[in-house]
Amino acid sequence: MEEVVALIGIDWADESHEMCVYEMSSKRVEHETVEQKAEALHDWVNGLRKRFGGGKIAIAVEQSKGALIYALMRYDFLLLYPLNPKSLSSYREALRTSGAKDDPSDAELILHFLRAHRDRLRVWVPEDEVSRRLGMLVEFRRKLVADLVRVTNRLGSLLKGYYPQALEMMGELDSRMACDFLNKWPSVFELKKAKAARLRKFYAQHNCRSAEAIERRIALAQTAEPLTEDRAIIDASLLMVRMLVRQLQELLESKREIDVEIRKVFSLHPDGQIYESLPGAGEVLEPRLAAAMGTNRNKYDTALEMQQFVGTAPVTKKSGKSYRVHRRLARPRFVMQTHVEFAAQSIVYSRWAAAYYQVQKDRGSGHYAAVRALAYKWDRILFRCWKDRKPYDEGKYLEVLKRRNSPLVKLLNLPKPPKSSHSSWTSAGDTITELGQKLC
């Protein structure tokens, strides 16, 4: 641990923060309140610098990102210790059986936790600028996708109530073709007026090349009957559809813009070649994995430490004769999703991943349990590639499996599973089941 001149516990809030300052030389504890304003925070930090002569100050706070952290991270004499809120909650229950809680006492509790356990805490080290920017962009994109799902669900539900033919005529709801279709033919009455030639031209302009699908849709348009003729339902629904289509168009354009920016930033990432080499990662998961891993090689000392943080490492609970293993619930959700989604995609593009998934299925695991087990394996590989700064090589990994006489080697001649549905893959027979019992 670095020598420090003061320890500070901060109980943060939206409008103001409670600070509890412990001066190492005098052993004195002070309380103060600082507003959540840029000027007030920077004045407070500059006051600390003058008071303690620029010496190192350790600060603990229940936050790993947000306005307060963003303000404090610019000062190199501050050592930041983000605390897990769950850990502090358990600490509070252990020391205060009454459950009493207020902001000043919480700041003092955080300070007490920092004083007692600083040797077990790790100083927060910000990632490089490219990784931080990439991390924020991919999280923003995830929220945009969630907004898209929300709008398309509402739009789909609305169309089922007065215009179900549109759901068959316009393809995926989250597409430009769907928006253009509803702008041209917002109800079945306008659709029945459309000529076949105009419909063919519309689909050709939107890159729909299946002649069979186009003719089927044209036939549906010509024979379509209104679900209801109640003008109260139709007129209100038409208004809502126009509003939802405008939202959908704006979200689709925003998603396109952020995708362009993500690829631009990812091209500057120093470890980009590592994630581009991963089978199945693709344009979406490559930058997400890069943002999740970062470039600070001191963040994890072992693969297990990384797996425990991500959440792919299982949790074992033993007490007396009781023994239970379950998936890790306390983990950064978006990071965990990134690693598991990559593992699921790799099944289609990596032969050993497909074989391992099949073994897990034949051992009785469900689809998601099998994918999580595969993510655990991939994290060991990803950790080594990340530590050594080397891209992944499928051929080299298969050679390692052969050299170690892995049971998976005997399964690598199996045909690749279809892309359509991971969960519906059939068993490859008793041989896989038998090998699965031996596979660690």
What does this structure look like?
This protein has 440 residues and is α/β, with parallel strands linked by helices. The chain has three domains: 6-120, 2-Layer Sandwich (Nucleotidyltransferase, domain 5), CATH 3.30.420.10; 132-265, Helix Hairpins (Orthogonal Bundle), CATH 1.10.287; 274-438, no CATH class. Helix content is 58%, strand content 10%. It contains 19 helices and seven strands. The chain has a five-stranded mixed beta sheet with strand order 3-2-1-4-5. A two-stranded antiparallel sheet has the order 6-7. Helix 5 packs antiparallel against helix 11, helix 7 (176-184) packs antiparallel against helix 11 (231-266) and helix 9 packs across helix 10 (211-223). The longest helix has 36 residues, at 231-266. The chain is globular, with a radius of gyration of 28 Å. The two termini are 38 Å apart.
The H-and-E topology, N to C, reads as EEEHEHEHHHHHHHHHHHHEEHHHHH
Total number of strands: 7
Count of runs of 4 or more consecutive helical residues: 19
Biggest β-sheet: count, sense, barrel?
5 strands, mixed
Number of domains: 3
Which residues form runs of ≥5 with pLDDT under 50?
A: 414-440
Distance between the termini: 38 Å
Spatial sequence of strands, sheet with the most strands: 3-2-1-4-5
Report the structural category.
Answer: alpha/beta
Radius of gyration: 28 Å
Q: Strand percentage, roughly?
A: 5-15%
* Mean pLDDT figure: 87
Shape: globular
Helix content: 55-70%
